[in-house]
Request: fold
Amino acid sequence: MSKNVPCDSMNKVVVGLSGGVDSSVAAATLHRQGYQVVGLTLWLMKGKGQCCSEGMVDAAFICEQLGIPHHIVDSRDVFEQNIIDYLVSGYQAGITPLPCSQCNKAVKFGPMLNYAQEKLGIDKIATGHYARIRYDAESDRYQLLRALDLTKDQSYFLYDLTQDLLAASVFPLGEVKKTETRRIATEYQLKTADKPESQDLCLVESHGSMQTFLDKYISPTQGDIVDSEGKVLGQHSGIHHYTIGQRRGIGIAAAQPLYVIALDPVRNRVIVGDRHSANQSECQVGRVNWVSIPVPTNPIKASVQVRYRSPAVPVTVIPLTGDRLKLVFDEPQFSITPGQAAVFYNGDLLLGGGIIEKSVVSDSQQI
Reply:
């Protein structure tokens, strides 16, 4: 048993409840194992956040079913500052931010643990994430691993968790298949057993689309769509409507498919090219958090995911100064998107991760 998973039946744990089936089963499983479980739901959305309002109701019902306390914490201001502002400023700067890893560290795990310790006197938190944690005595580090169910693995979104947060966290579903989660929910007769899975970011579900959400905060400003030579091919209504690698929705007829290869917020331009021009052989990564191993001083070989649904590909990781590094891919990769996370692994072991930095727009693209 991992060092961070308590086995004493009198241990207390605060379980983050979103109102979905995964967090419900996590709470029910720990409760059945003899833990003293306290449910905690974070109220994240301002206004008519349907996912939050329905989630809080379902989470409260689950706690009533299990006979456990339920706390709701108003985290709307924290979410606004750390996620809404983060997204808006990122899109304005011509990058495509990944809110989920930022949310996990700054909005969920950190505040959850603080509340558990300061308000409830509890030192353990649990969530329904599909990932695993183990303690490595040799390095004296808590290590993060992929889930047993690789089709549901969420370790990619957890790369930014610190050692303190990993030490305090429990992932009851890390070794459970999603089909088993549904079976357990049905067996326990949980209200959420048949609840459909969320398919989008909470902001997308709440506003209908990312574009609709962004248009509330960023005024559309018309600009040029240009090729890599600077030739004007068409017009756009705002660079925040585009992301690197995008093909659909560009609105330009061409002899071959065009992809977004760069965004230039200074000149308010979208730069397009063929698929080959959207490939990159290397990129730089900042805000790196080394999770399962100490900070390396020399280049290492690893595999890297540059987006959640992409396969891990071979890469050489070259440490730079501070919390930055360079990735050199064994083969050029399509659509390396600034603002997204690059997360590196050794097999199932998550080594670390960081945010892909924006490439400098070339002189030809500045025409």
Summary: The chain has three domains: 12-206, 222-274, 280-366. The CA atoms of residues 306 and 342 lie 4 Å apart. Residues 12-206 form a domain with the Rossmann fold fold (CATH 3.40.50.620). The two ends are 60 Å apart (CA to CA).
